[in-house]
Amino acid sequence: MKIRKAVIVAAGWGVRFLPITKTQPKEMLPLINKPLIQYSVEEIVDSGIEQVILVTSVGKRSIEDYFDRSAELECFLEQKGESGFLKEVRRLSSLVDICTVRQKEQLGLGHAVLSAKNAVGREPFAVLLPDDIIAGHSPALKEMIAVFERYDANVLAVERIAAQDTVKYGIIEPREIADRIYEVKSLVEKPEPEQAPSNLGIVGRYLLMPEIFDVLEKTPPGKKGEVQLTDGLQLLLKQQAIYACEFEGTRYDAGTPVGWLKTNIAFALRHPSIGPEIKEYLRQCLGEDEV
Ligand code: G1P
Prior knowledge:
Blueprint: E1 5-9, E2 30-31, E3 34-35, H1 36-46, E4 51-56, H2 61-66, H3 71-80, H4 83-93, E5 97-102, H5 109-114, H6 117-120, E6 125-128, E7 132-135, H7 140-151, E8 154-160, E9 170-178, E10 181-189, E11 200-208, H8 211-218, H9 229-236, E12 242-246, E13 250-253, H10 257-269, H11 275-286
Parallel strand pairs: 1-4, 1-6, 4-5, 8-12
Antiparallel strand pairs: 2-3, 6-11, 7-13, 8-11, 9-10, 10-12
The structure holds 1-O-phosphono-alpha-D-glucopyranose.
């Protein structure tokens, strides 16, 4: 069955970015000239998915407004003859069909995904965490869809992580079945390095069967007292196969202030119009020899 819907989880408080996230959704922080969440939306569109379900919470209105039409702004840009910006602003509002569901209590990623149950219905769907930005020749989600179509089962995105970083990720116990494709034997949320079954960490892209909703309804709170998606997937393994795809692109973690800054620097350096100037500026900041 074709994957038609993608859930973007954008409901968190953005605690690591406080105080700016007091009034500014983390997902709307800029990566060069676009908000973080736009990279996920574009990855979804470029992967052939037609509908986005945003899981939001209180204070996230600006995300909905961003992807909506702004007749006033369009009129202003038209009058000023700003045809480039006008085109971009119009493109944004017609990128994809977006609907919103609210997570009313912040009870964890598993609970956030469960909030989208009625909007998704009984069909396979994608989940994206917009903190994880993946750059590459072809969208990571598209690569995962090819794996989904081959095995007709749940697919997670994974990447090799440093041994000491297992505490930051869901970790899989893998059995390699093809080049960069694994059958998942078990999963554990944020284990200590000694307990980790491998160094393959889950990145914020999932293709899931609708049965995950039934399982999440019964998943008890885990790490941090929250309903963890990883725990739900471990339960789902009892009835369904799960595969993992080690995607080709490069992942950037924009979910912490330092990670966000590094991602901006990386994108700025390879940006065709501002790249040379930023490189020169970094040289100046650090002294000629250090960059
Ligand atoms: C979440 C998941 C974790 C996954 C990670 C990917 O953690 O719980 O399993 O590896 O996203 O970014 P978070 O980063 O929200 O703490």
